[in-house]
Write a structure and sequence with these properties.
Elements lengths: L21 E6 L4 E6 L1 H12 L3 E6 L3 E4 L2 E4 L2 E5 L2 E7 L7 E4 L2 E8 L1 H6 L1 H16 L6 H10 L4 E2 H7 L5 H14 L2 E2 L13 E4 L5
Parallel strand pairs: 7-9
Antiparallel strand pairs: 1-2, 3-6, 4-5, 6-7, 8-9, 10-12, 11-12
Length: 207
């Protein structure tokens, strides 16, 4: 079947659900403000920003009609040229659906799945504002220098010590920017809080 890609650029208009917290943040991948309703949607948003394989996304892109009911899609994502609709905490009978002329995979994100990623989410809650504040301030030369320096797993403190002649805030922002882009890895962030001891590694290193 020929796929006609439907790109979602803005959420559907809706009233904030009663009892849910409104959380406004800046989406680096979208270059715009994002509004999440509730902690679960916010946690999933953090995961989308933290995953370099996610090319783009949109919060609350559409409703699915299931029988006589409408089910809100929490996120549309584009990942490795596949488009997926994410539904948080709702058991959805659909595994695929058509919207317009595009065929989508439908995936349910469980509350337990988000809870198990809490350390990862908390780390990226700290990382994303640093990257946002450094936008436009990090020179490409610094990014390339860091990539050359981190030829093997290296602690954050070591990287920053090697670049002590540069502005510390910009150095930290550059390191985290490379992580956000998928040009560095830091697997420890899934199980341990970000610290000077956190190791960053080149993406080709699989140890």
């Amino acid at each position: 079947m020929t796929r006609l890609t439907t790109s979602f650029h803005a959420p559907v208009s809706m009233v904030r659900p009663r009892g849910s917290r409104r959380i406004e943040i800046y989406g680096l991948k979208l270059d715009r403000r994002v509004q999440c309703f509730g902690e679960a949607a916010y946690g999933q948003w953090v995961c989308l920003e933290a995953d370099p394989s996610i090319q783009t996304y949109c919060e609350r892109p559409a409703f699915l009609e299931i029988g006589n009911e409408k089910l809100l899609v929490d996120f549309w994502i584009k990942q490795d040229d596949q488009e997926t609709l994410l539904i948080i905490g709702e058991e959805c009978s659909l595994q695929r659906t058509m919207l317009g002329n595009t065929d989508y995979t439908v995936k349910t994100i469980s509350q337990n799945g988000l809870a198990s990623a809490q350390v990862w989410i908390e780390n990226w809650e700290r990382i994303l504002p640093v990257i946002t504040s450094c936008r436009g301030l990090v020179p490409d030369t610094l990014l390339k220098t860091i990539q050359r320096l981190v030829a093997e797993p290296m602690q954050l403190s070591h990287i920053e010590r090697e670049l002590v002649t540069s502005e510390p805030t910009i150095v930290r922002g550059a390191i985290l920017m490379l992580l956000h882009r998928g040009q560095l890895r830091a697997p420890q962030l899934r199980t341990e809080p970000l610290s000077f001891l956190t190791q960053f590694a080149p993406v080709e290193d699989e140890s």
